[in-house]
Amino acid sequence: MQLLRAPCSSSSPFHFSNSQPRGRHERPAWVSFRDSAWSSITPKAASIQASASAVSSQTAENDVLKSLSQIIDPDFGTDIVSCGFVKDLNVNKALGEVSFRLELTTPACPIKDMFEQQANEVVAALPWVKRVSMTMSARPARPVYAGNLPENLQTISNIIAVSSCKGGVGKSIVAVNLAYTLAGMGARVGIFDADVYGPSLPTMVSPENQLLEMNPEKRTIIPTEYLGIKLVSFGFAGQGRAIMRGPMVSGVIDQLLTTTEWGELDYLVIDMPPGTGDIQLTLCQVVPLTAAVIVTTPQKLAFIDVAKGVRMFSKLKVPCVAVVENMCHFDADGKRYHPFGRGSGSQVVEQFGIPHLFELPIRPTLSASGDSGIPEVVADPQGEVARTFQELGICVVQQCAKICQQVSTAVTYDKGMKAIRVKVPDSVEEFYLHPATVRRNDRSAQSVDEWTGEQKLQYADVPEDIEPEEIRPMGNYAVSITWADGFSQIAPYDQLQTMERLIDVPQLI
After folding, report:
1. Structure pTM?
2. Long-range interactions of 222-230: CB distance < 8 A, separation 24+
3. Which class is domain 411-496?
């Protein structure tokens, strides 16, 4: 670079434009030019360096996420990155440090140790990584759909019904031991004894406080506790067993369930009363049951009653995830005996397509634990019965996670396609609907006269370009859609499946 300088004089090698003597600290013009040039170059270089550093950091994060995407969640069938498990990722490639958090769907995840080991291994295998810092957590306890739920139920992730529809088959034993198994797996658990006529919970557990307390300010019920599990039963209300008609019982159950301060729970296990009447229907309508566990015994008579219960849950869109066949057999003299016959449990599985069957033996200790106030899985955590309940607990956790995932993504709106995507749980079929078609098929009283059946909502009343603002699941059977015009619509899955479908779906370019 050629430096510009003023014409020289005989007295000085440099000429200064102000023709004044140069002060001691005054710099020559060429020096000022050089500094000026560097002052304009340096910020650019710094910007380029910062940009390169940002690119390097982004590349390093992508490397970490690509490594973690090798880990597949066996329940969802997709990688943990796509599942949204990876949180708070922080990468410092210069120091070779990586930190992140794995947020699982439940603290009772049966494969959390496997996730932790695999995540550490795949990230540490990156050539530039020197140190991996990883923590494990679980999502806050929240139901898939919290809208319109009573306040005290809005912090419960999963509600499990344990049902037999027949008395005397050991349903309460299964409910209590399942609850304590889930708690042993790391979950926050509560038990609700819904049998007002013959509550079993006060006999099966031994809380220090045998009476429910009231919060006078909030007018709510404070549950009692035993070994960290929250408990509510009419038997803890100081009333013993109820003598009242069905509508009164339904009201009592509603009050006990919805006004209790449950707090944050991962699982609330409901010990359902026998039958398929008002009480059972009330429970299914008041709360969005995540799943049901069916309890039976080997006798044919038990199967007949259990079948009624399974059909009831099917109509209410509550998936039955497991069958527990109690009092199956006992071992003596090196032989296995089946005193009540065989086949009821497997018949339920085969006839109704319930995927998992668990068998409980006739065991004096199991029966005694129901009367002693100490659950069998607590009294003998390494025994055969506890191992069976551990398998049942793992099944319930995995199935509930899959159900919640399916329900939360069953109906979504694709803005690029301008279409509503539907994939009903337990169905392999996926299809698309035009938003206006869904809106025009509303069957509420605002759109159809309840008495005459006359269609009040006309075709032209719904614009072709209408779009949903929000789609939220309602239990396991429907979605609530809020439209841009402010209208709120409840669309059951059964109804969505009968609507005219989009054949040529416009693709996002």
Report:
1. 0.77
2. 222/260, 222/261, 223/190, 223/260, 223/261, 223/262, 227/180, 227/183, 227/378, 228/183, 228/189, 229/179, 229/180, 229/183, 229/189, 229/190, 229/191, 229/205, 230/189, 230/190, 230/191, 230/262, 230/263, 230/265
3. alpha beta
